[in-house]
Amino acid sequence: MPPVTHPAAVPLPIAGRAPERSDAAANRERILAAARRMLAEQGAEALSMNAVAAAAGVGKGTIFRRFGDRDGLTAALLDAHTAQLQDAFLFGPPPLGPGAAPEARLEAFMRALVHFHDAHLEIVLAAERLVPGAPPVYGTFLIHVRSLLEQVDPRLDAPVLAGLLLSAVDPPGLQRLLRRENADPARVADGIVALLRGLLAA
């Protein structure tokens, strides 16, 4: 089995961004805040450059120059939220961050991912539709889970099992559970952890 790069060595999706002037950074946050409100209140289908520009109090050209198009704006929204989750599992306190047993870290990460997807469901669903296969951040999550599985037991088929675990909490599937089956996030997280424990026990 080929060696797995440690997650800390993997560039985050937002890495490499050039420093911004304070007024440019303020404009960026105002635009992102307006887009987040629209997603929360009206869903991804209502997210248009005209509507976001009006809500943010900036010209539409400002958004196009900064984000390129609606896809770029959606990617920026996702990056802003995933940076917090990535910091938590790469550098934060255990059990989600370093310092706990790999089994405990896996459980903490899967729970955190369920709650992350629930909190930002419209954004992650929009990102799923924009990028064929999976958004770039999926690769970071996949490497993290794969690395922890290899720490639990090097004999495990970590690449396959990591993909299966992440598939269990993919945004469209989670949406069906939360909205159609009326399952709350804590219940879904408990189910994922039960699956994980059964997998590791086997």
CATH topology of the largest domain: the name is Tetracycline Repressor, domain 2
Average pLDDT metric: 83
Distance between the termini: 20 Å
The helix fraction, in percent, is 55-70%
What form results from the Cα inertia axes? Answer: elongated
Q: Mind telling me the CATH superfamily name of the largest domain?
A: Tetracycline Repressor, domain 2
CATH architecture of the largest domain: Orthogonal Bundle
List keywords for this structure.
202 residues, mainly alpha, Arc Repressor Mutant, subunit A, 2 domains, 10 helices, 69% helix, elongated
Task: Please describe what this structure looks like.
- With 202 residues, this protein is mainly α.
- The protein has 2 domains: 20-68, Arc Repressor Mutant, subunit A (Orthogonal Bundle), CATH 1.10.10.60; 70-202, Orthogonal Bundle (Tetracycline Repressor, domain 2), CATH 1.10.357.10.
- The chain is built from 10 helices and no strands.
- The longest helix has 22 residues, at 70-91.
- The chain is elongated, with a radius of gyration of 18 Å.
